[in-house]
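Summary of Year 1 activities. Much of the first year was spent building the evaluation harness for sequence design. The harness presents a backbone, in tokenized form, and records the residue chosen at every position. We chose the following record to illustrate the format because it has been used consistently in internal testing since the harness was completed.
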């Protein structure tokens, strides 16, 4: 199999209309119904095994919804998604065994230390023993945590450091597919580089397929083999970083991904409302 992920004509909306057209015009939301928001609009793409595939777009563009659909946390209204040949709707358990997900809102037992949190998570996957403890320490150290921080309560750590622990928790299980939803948001430049280096190593050394959502142009350019640009739930372009830059004229300098996004969508890639 060459495809790790197949997304075909996937559509997902939230909210529901408040009745007929005239009711919505003259009595909007009479029952408190939320307006319909199309988060993912008939999206199709494939991710190859061993690829780092980026989904680039502002917050509110549908990136996180797409990740949740692939992770079986949401069901598509239409279309289908396969992960290593398993359908996310009919075979969710099989999909969940193959993936791990890191999001910006990672949760922990805040009174416990990173080591305790990760060992607890490891036991849920059937991992235990001295070797697991050593691997936890190795991963956390590689991500830039000082040894003394590994044994301090999570509540004493910055959000950026907590995000590193979330990434370590995902790496611990050696997933075939790693879903990273804005993994470096809130990190300082040095921490960003450390996390990005670990992502590259995991991909190159273990062959892990990675799907990465981001609004960070440089991160997408440096990490991703191919990038899908998403705007308002629609994929407006998909190619390698260099291929995307060839879409627009150079005007005497090499275009950036931000130039490409601005040309395709008519808007700058800035942080907007959350997905």
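For this record, the design step produced the sequence shown next.
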């Amino acid at each position: 199999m060459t495809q790790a992920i197949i997304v075909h004509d996937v559509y997902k909306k939230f909210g529901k209309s408040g009745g007929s057209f005239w009711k919505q015009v003259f009595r909007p939301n009479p029952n408190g119904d939320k307006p319909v928001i199309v988060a993912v609009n008939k999206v199709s793409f494939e991710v190859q095994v061993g690829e780092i595939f980026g989904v680039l777009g502002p917050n509110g563009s549908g990136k996180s919804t797409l990740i949740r659909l692939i992770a079986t946390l949401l069901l598509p209204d239409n279309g289908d998604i396969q992960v290593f040949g398993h359908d996310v709707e009919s075979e969710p358990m099989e999909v969940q065994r193959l993936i791990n997900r890191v999001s910006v809102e990672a949760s922990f037992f805040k009174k416990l230390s990173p080591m305790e949190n990760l060992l607890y998570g490891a036991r849920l996957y059937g991992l235990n023993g001295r070797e697991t403890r050593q691997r936890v320490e190795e991963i956390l150290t590689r991500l830039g945590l000082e040894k003394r921080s590994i044994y301090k309560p999570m509540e004493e750590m910055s959000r950026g450091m907590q995000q590193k622990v979330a990434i370590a928790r995902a790496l611990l299980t050696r997933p075939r597919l790693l879903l990273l939803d804005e993994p470096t948001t809130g990190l300082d430049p040095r921490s960003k580089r450390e996390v990005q280096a670990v992502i590259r190593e995991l991909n190159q050394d273990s062959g892990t397929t990675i799907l990465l959502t981001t609004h960070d142009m440089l991160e997408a350019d440096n990490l991703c083999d191919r990038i899908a640009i998403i705007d308002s739930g629609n994929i407006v372009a998909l190619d390698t970083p260099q291929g995307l830059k060839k879409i627009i004229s150079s005007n005497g300098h090499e275009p950036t991904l931000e130039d490409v996004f601005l040309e395709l969508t008519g808007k700058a890639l800035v942080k907007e409302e959350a997905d």
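The domain at 3-105+176-265 is CATH 3.40.50.300 (Rossmann fold). Quantitative recovery figures across the full test set are reported in Table 2.
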